[in-house]
Amino acid sequence: MTDKPRVWVSRPTFPGVIARLEPHFEVTVEDTERKLGPSELAARLARQDAVIVGLKDRIGAAEVGAAERLRIVANLAVGYDNIDVDAMSAAGIAVSNTADVLNESVADYAWALLLGAARRMTAAERWLRAGHWHATEFKAWLGSDVRGRTLGILGMGRIGQAIAHRAVGFGMPVIYHNRSPLPEAVERACHARHVDKAQLLGESDFLVLALPLTPRTRHAVGAPELALMKPTALLINIARGGIVDDAALAAALRDRRLAGAALDVFEGEPKLHPALLTLDNVVLSPHIASATTETRRAMTSVAVDNVLALFGHGPHAGRPPNIVNPNVL
Ligand code: DGY
What we know:
- The protein is an alpha/beta fold.
- It folds into 2 domains: 6-99 and 292-328, NAD(P)-binding Rossmann-like Domain (Rossmann fold); 103-284, 3-Layer(aba) Sandwich (Rossmann fold).
- It is 32% helix and 14% strand.
- It has helices spanning 15-18, 38-46, 85-90, 103-118, 121-129, 158-166, 184-190, 197-203, 223-228, 246-254, 274-278, 293-310, and strands at 6-9, 26-29, 50-53, 72-75, 94-96, 151-154, 174-177, 192-194, 206-209, 234-237, 260-263, 282-284.
- α4 crosses α6.
- It binds (2R)-2,3-dihydroxypropanoic acid.
- (2R)-2,3-dihydroxypropanoic acid binds next to loops.
- GO terms for molecular function: glyoxylate reductase (NADPH) activity; hydroxypyruvate reductase [NAD(P)H] activity; NAD binding.
């Protein structure tokens, strides 16, 4: 035992990056990826001065009830709907996220999903792997072009903007909806036009969701919103499960009231709505939009920087850069 403060890292990540904590902290890293139950998690947190956690760790008042030494929960994600920020603030615990370093990777992945869904890539691959390719009909596997079609973005934060920038190369007009329009200069740089939500739903050929999950955005796209979309449209969700009502989406996809979808996130993940698994007009992936080596390493580095900074070390000593509840500092 040492008298250094203690940091617990809830999931295996990049040891070379975590090593930056070692001169200042006693560091414990979980060596396997597993979800701890609430009481196991509370027991882990009780002994720590800082923790680096992931989306699978749901942390609220109960989990930090005995965590008297805990000063920071550094989340390995930009979204932090797994953490009850009000409860952390009430307990005087800072919460940090990994904003910005993942914008470009997530935007790339949104486009990978969009293009994959438009060209039916994963369904075609399944067909090929199943040994069905004896001859391909001229009119088999017809997808839809993206060029010139309208890209809609719901949630035009930094990730939404990075997605919009990429639309220029595809010659796509971009419309978006946010609670408030972006400053004109930012809109111009994104070649994007603010519209109301009904217009966004009704005019988008490809609708990408890039908004955080909050009580207000839960089921922001449910049956009534899906009914406003074109039957030829595709829905892409790289934001969070729960923003879409997955049961309503599965029904719309099954009945071809919506042409297709591409989903990286799911309500109740890692469980999926079973109907989604049976449909061929949906591309599915296991919440990997930020999963590149470079970006996951950078996310780890941001979490480490925030922990170091809160304890007065590292490049941002005393000024942790990504605190989402700065009132506690
Ligand atoms: C995030 O950072 O919020 C992503 O969804 C996790 O990869």
